[in-house]
Amino acid sequence: MGISANSEPKIISGDFGYVLEDVPHFTDYIPDLPTYPNPLQDNPSYSVVKQYFVNVDDTVAQKIVVQKDSPRGTHFRRAGPRQKVYFEPDDVHACIVTCGGLCPGLNTVIREIVCGLYYMYGVHRVSGIEGGYRGFYSKNTIPLTPKVVNDIHKRGGTILGTSRGGHDTSKIVDCIQDRGINQVYILGGDGTQKGASMIFEEIRRRGLKVAVAGIPKTIDNDIPVIDKSFGFDTAVEEAQRAINAAHVEAESFENCIGVVKLMGRYSGFIAMYATLASRDVDCCLIPESPFYLEGAGGLFEYIERRLKENGGHMVIVIAEGAGQELLAESMLTVNHQDASGNKLLQDSGLWLSQKIKDHFSKQNKMAINLKYIDPTYMIRAIPSNASDNVYCTLLAHSVIHGAMAGYTGFTVGSVNGRHAYIPFHRVIERQNKICITDRMWARLLSSTNQPSFLDPKDVAETKEETVAQLVNGENHLDVPATVRPKD
Ligand SMILES: Nc1ncnc2c1ncn2[C@@H]1O[C@H](COP(=O)(O)OP(=O)(O)OP(=O)(O)O)[C@@H](O)[C@H]1O
Ligand SMILES: O=P(O)(O)OC[C@H]1O[C@](O)(CO)[C@@H](O)[C@@H]1O
Ligand SMILES: [Mg+2]
After folding, report:
1. Residue 78: which of 418, 468, 437 has the closest Cα?
2. Spatial CB neighbours of 210, under 8 Å, sequence gap ≥ 6
3. Residue 471: is its pLDDT beyond 60?
4. What is the ipTM of this complex?
5. CA angle 315, 320, 322 (to 5 degrees)
6. What pLDDT does 428 receive?
7. pLDDT, tens digit, 9 for 90 and up, residues 241-296
8. In which residues is substrate bound (predicted)?
9. Could you say which of 9, 46, 99, 320 is the most buried, measured as most Cβ atoms within 10 Å of its Cβ?
10. Which residues of 218-240 are buried (b: 16+ CB within 10 A; e: fewer)?
């Protein structure tokens, strides 16, 4: 029997509207594979655990707010150790690669995959792929042992290096095959997970017993389905420092505006959470919420009022993707892309600062001071904080258990607090975005007192879209990739 070009989603239905969006398994395309007892059951550290292994039928619900008559809805396979594994420890040759931008916690995940494989499963061959996807075919691998990775979680960045672009599926799979690699752990954002999905499909097409597993990494928190991405909390915490500096500066000068630019290409999560956490922010601008500068209800009117009411100081947080349509109108924009094909955005923070200065200097309207802080790279180049470190450890353990159990073509993530295996297509088809008709954005508006910049008609339309999504069983407002701002 031939193997079809692309795997079909594995959807299993049960009673009362139960749906399992399952992940691929070796047994889907390789018959008669031997299994082995999980070595974890002989591990003294885990002997205290009451239930060693998760039940193979355990699944995690995507939607947990339900009513009496609601259908049971979408579920994902629960992560965790299985009684039977599909690899003998000595046969495993695992590799780890990091792709895309930096994110706090990358080194922790690398460390915990290496140590988890060593200490839980007795796997001693783990190779690091240097410099992202292109490292598969253009560089030598580095051997990773618990000794090599012992202290790396205390450092920011990734000891393996990373890159954008350079994804060549067949060259990558040739390299995996030539080196005898049979577990591939891929850390990266939406682009990386798309690349991982293509690697999985090619491996499956070639009929190889190679597990391909993704660990979602994105400082923008734009990967759907999962509760949040690792490093996000650390980034928000670090963003506080910049906001605090802007506040101190603004308070110390007359009519002073502190402007802080934070990351967030299409999703303003860092800006929103940093604003909510800080309480010193008077206005937060994100890509999901269009705004305007001039006229009644516009940003300039608000700034003027706020400076007058607030003792002559204010702080504005702007996400890098906010107001890009305004920038396009007022600047000559050239459609530049990075090596991965992501649109290179104009500097929204610099643009906004200049616009504010120009406005207030016009006809000597009001003398203002403006202090612009751009901490974008500082917040993602640091080591992860305590809670992210624990999260990274759990993600690393979950992904190892899945690969050892023969699952492949999946991304690991926490869904409503429980770790689950999510098929690649579910994390690459949409982007997670802030829903501006959601209670969280309303909380932000009420904490900053900024205008919503919204026409009541737009609010009604967005509400209708949100209701439609919630009826379809989505917890977050995930915006389909097809309606993203055009790349
Ligand atoms: N559609 C795609 N198909 C195959 N590979 C892709 C695709 N999009 C991106 N990649 C590859 O994935 C890697 C990372 O992609 P990208 O630079 O977009 O970062 P990312 O993973 O989205 O992370 P982040 O945006 O959080 O920094 C690159 O090597 C790129 O070539
Ligand atoms: O300058 P670089 O390394 O391409 O990264 C910038 C991009 O990376 C991200 O942080 C995503 O990782 C975006 O928010 C940002 O636009
Ligand atoms: Mg991306």
Report:
1. 418
2. 176, 181, 182, 183, 184, 203, 408
3. no
4. 0.98
5. 80
6. 96
7. 999 999 999 999 999 999 999 999 999 999 999 999 999 999 999 999 999 999 99
8. 218-220, 263-265, 320, 377-380
9. 99
10. bbbbbbbbbbbbbbbbbbbbbbb
pTM (2 decimals)? 0.93
The pLDDT, as a whole number, for residue 473 is 44
Q: What is the pLDDT of residues 163-207, one digit of tens each?
A: 999 999 999 999 999 999 999 999 999 999 999 999 999 999 999
Residue 406 Ramachandran class (φ > 0 left, ψ -120 to 50 alpha, else beta): left
| Inter-residue contact 218 to 229 (CB < 8 Å) | yes
- Residue closest to 130 by CA, chosen among 99, 101, 104, 108: 99
Catalytic site residue 220? yes
Ligand 2, CB within 6 Å, residue ranges: 100-101, 189, 218-220, 263-265, 320, 338, 380
Question: Which pLDDT belongs to residue 486?
Answer: 32
Q: What does the pLDDT average to over 322-345?
A: 84
Cβ pair 214, 186 in contact under 8 A: yes
| Catalytically annotated residue among 220, 280, 282, 478 | 220
Q: What pLDDT was estimated at residue 111?
A: 98
Binding residues for substrate are 218-220, 263-265, 320, 377-380
Residue of 323, 317, 374 lying closest to 348 (CA atoms):
323
* Ligand 1, pocket-test mutation among 6, 97, 138, 164, most atoms within 8 A of CB: 164
